[in-house]
Design goal:
162 residues, alpha+beta, five-stranded antiparallel beta sheet, 5 helices, 24% strand, elongated
Length: 162
């Protein structure tokens, strides 16, 4: 009887683990459902690229985010040049906790932003971990929510510590 109960418990645990693994599996998106920037950098040496489809900003809004992380100094130099980031070299190549934001036309980093907000992507630059977060907007409400989050995070840092 104990053996049967133990076997049933192990099978139930295995079923729960399988359902959890299926729910949290990595989902590979077809080529057309990712961003141009992700496709440009996903095989670049020294750069780790990721694409997050439908990142939840709040209960009702989602946005697509491309994350570009420089794994080494050559990758960071490539990103700085490609995105035309103009900060002092002492800041760019330090472990500064500074952040910067910039708008540029969709898929064209380093160019002047379009006057229509939804025709642009928003780049958030985090210097301490050499990472760029590029948000692709289809609605102005998405932009407002990202900026609202950024404002809350930096005006109440105790609440958003990681």
């Amino acid at each position: 009887m104990k053996r049967r109960l133990l076997l049933f418990g192990l099978l139930a645990l295995l079923a729960v683990a399988a359902v959890t693994a299926w729910h949290y599996r990595a989902r590979l998106l077809p080529r057309g459902e990712t961003s141009e920037l992700y496709l440009r950098y996903h095989d670049a040496p020294g750069i780790l690229a990721d694409f997050i489809k439908n990142f939840h900003l709040n209960d009702t809004l989602t946005v697509d985010v491309t994350v570009l992380h420089a794994a080494d100094s050559s990758g960071w130099t490539c990103l700085v040049n490609d995105f035309n980031i103009s900060l002092a070299p002492s800041v760019l190549f330090s472990d500064s906790t500074a952040t910067a934001t910039c708008l540029f036309p969709k898929g064209h980093p380093g160019q002047v932003a379009d006057p229509t907000l939804v025709n642009n992507d928003l780049m958030l630059l985090h210097l301490n971990d050499k990472t760029l977060y590029i948000f692709s907007f289809i609605d102005e409400a998405q932009f407002v929510e990202v900026m609202r989050y950024k404002y809350r995070k930096y005006n109440n840092p105790k609440k958003h510590k990681q």
